[in-house]
Design goal:
about 140 residues, alpha+beta, two-stranded antiparallel ribbon
Length: about 140
Amino acid sequence: MDPGYKSNISPQRLEGLVRQGLLLPLTAAKEWWLPGEEEEPEPPEGYVVSFAHFHERGFAMPAHQFLRGLMDYYQVELQHLTPNGIQHITTFVALYEGFLGISPHFDLWRYLFAVNLAKRRVEKQDLHAPVGCASIRLHNT
């Protein structure tokens, strides 16, 4: 993440997502959490980082099985995906389920799309994958 960047999400924007049906209402279980002042996302134990732009493009919780499979295959977390990447995934799933009426096919996904993970070195030993570092693009054919 860029140094000095802090989230600008507000309770009002999240409530707007709830009113639009794009985010479940907050209950006593605290399904979602606003970020603090940290530069890198540090969600509490058991939480994952998500972005309002993802929900505005059709992302819902719990995440679709195809998305969970992609994240497992590419070894990425939700915060590594970009809004455009989420849009590629949701469009692919919508084509299969909505138009073809079948489950998405992973082999065709791999044929059509390339996923690149940009990592950087931190403290000379660890590899760190920053937020938004997984780019999804069509393969050059």
